[in-house]
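Hi F.,

I've been meaning to write this up properly since the lab meeting, where we talked about keeping a consistent format for the predictions we share between groups. The idea is simple: the sequence comes first, exactly as it goes in, then the structure tokens exactly as they come out, then a line or two of notes. No screenshots and no reformatting. I'm using this chain as the first example so we have something concrete to point to.
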Amino acid sequence: MQHKDDLEVVKKLIAALAPGRHTMKEIYGDLWEGVRRKRACGWWFKRAVDAGRLPRLRWVRKRSNKSNEYEVLPR
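Output, unedited:
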């Protein structure tokens, strides 16, 4: 996912989540299996978060398994 349409899909996924900490796999849910280039998607996703294009989401840390952890903020 790296296009403007993808950004809208991710925004809808985030809007459906309760506040808390999640990995991309948890945020994407069942859609995660359809992501072919997971590492590239992760790179794009973190850049979108850092640039403020995904409201209600902030990067927290890199977990020991190398996945990024994000916090879904309250509305």
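Notes:
The chain has one domain: 4-72.
The longest strand covers residues 57-62.

If this format works for you, I'll send the rest the same way.

G.
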